[in-house]
């Protein structure tokens, strides 16, 4: 029979399995080959990194919505293609003068996992890159290309919050998903009110 220490060690290893697999996959992508040697060295390095280097605990929700995950992936592809075309047009336009901005975005959730995925997803899209993160307050600061007006900064902010919403609805906890849905309902109610007043 296993001792409590052994059981705790196996439980810890099982919890870190997604991180271990992600590190091994990253190692294989860096080497651009799948061989016994690269797989074994990737496994050893992943194990050493998770055991030797201190990493703060990442709380995973244990929840995945396949439909929302598919929508997230499709929207990411559309955003990348559209933003790439925009940046390409800006680059070849001889009259375009770059005016950029640092935009602060207050996220809906405080989850380190969601914040990291949102920052990565935003940085993958050409034209925006996260330059700083305020973990305590849940704020992302990003450099936005071609942001000249307050309306354009607001559009960038809405795009980031939309990305966060899609990530939360795909893999966030039930509580985080409810926060996002409530915020979405409140936003739609404000838009209806503003539209009625106009």
Q: Can you describe what's shown?
A:
This protein has seven helices and three strands. The chain is mainly alpha-helical. It folds into two domains: 4-52, no CATH class; 66-197, no CATH class. Helix 2 (17-31) crosses helix 3, helix 4 packs antiparallel against helix 6 (150-171) and helix 5 packs across helix 6 (150-171). It is globular and about 55 Å long. The chain crosses the membrane at residues 12-30, 36-60, 72-96. Belongs to the CPA3 antiporters (TC 2.A.63) subunit E family. Keywords: Cell membrane, Membrane, Transmembrane, Transmembrane helix.
The 3D shape can be described as globular
Seen as an oligomer or otherwise, the chain set is single chain
Largest sheet: 3 strands, antiparallel
**Percent of residues in beta strands?**
5-15%
- Work out the helicity level: 55-70%
Radius of gyration equals: 21 Å
Total tally of structural domains? 2
How is the largest sheet built, in terms of strand order? 1-3-2
């Amino acid at each position: 029979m296993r001792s409590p220490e052994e059981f705790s060690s196996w439980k810890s290893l099982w919890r870190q399995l997604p991180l271990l697999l992600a590190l091994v996959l990253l190692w294989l992508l860096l080497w651009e080959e799948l061989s016994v040697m690269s797989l074994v060295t990737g496994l050893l390095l992943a194990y050493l990194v998770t055991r030797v280097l201190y990493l703060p605990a990442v709380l995973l929700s244990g929840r995945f919505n396949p439909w929302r995950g598919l929508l997230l992936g499709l929207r990411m592809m559309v955003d990348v293609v559209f933003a790439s075309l925009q940046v390409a047009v800006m680059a070849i336009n001889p009259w375009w003068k770059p005016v950029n901005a640092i935009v602060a975005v207050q996220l809906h959730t405080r989850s380190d996992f969601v914040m990291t995925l949102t920052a990565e997803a935003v940085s993958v899209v050409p034209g925006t890159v996260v330059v700083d993160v305020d973990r305590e307050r849940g704020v992302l600061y990003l450099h936005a290309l071609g942001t000249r007006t307050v309306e354009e900064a607001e559009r960038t902010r809405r795009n980031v919050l939309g990305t966060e919403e899609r990530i939360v609805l795909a893999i966030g906890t039930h509580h985080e998903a409810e926060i996002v849905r409530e915020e979405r309902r409140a936003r739609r109610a404000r838009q209806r009110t503003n539209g009625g007043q106009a």
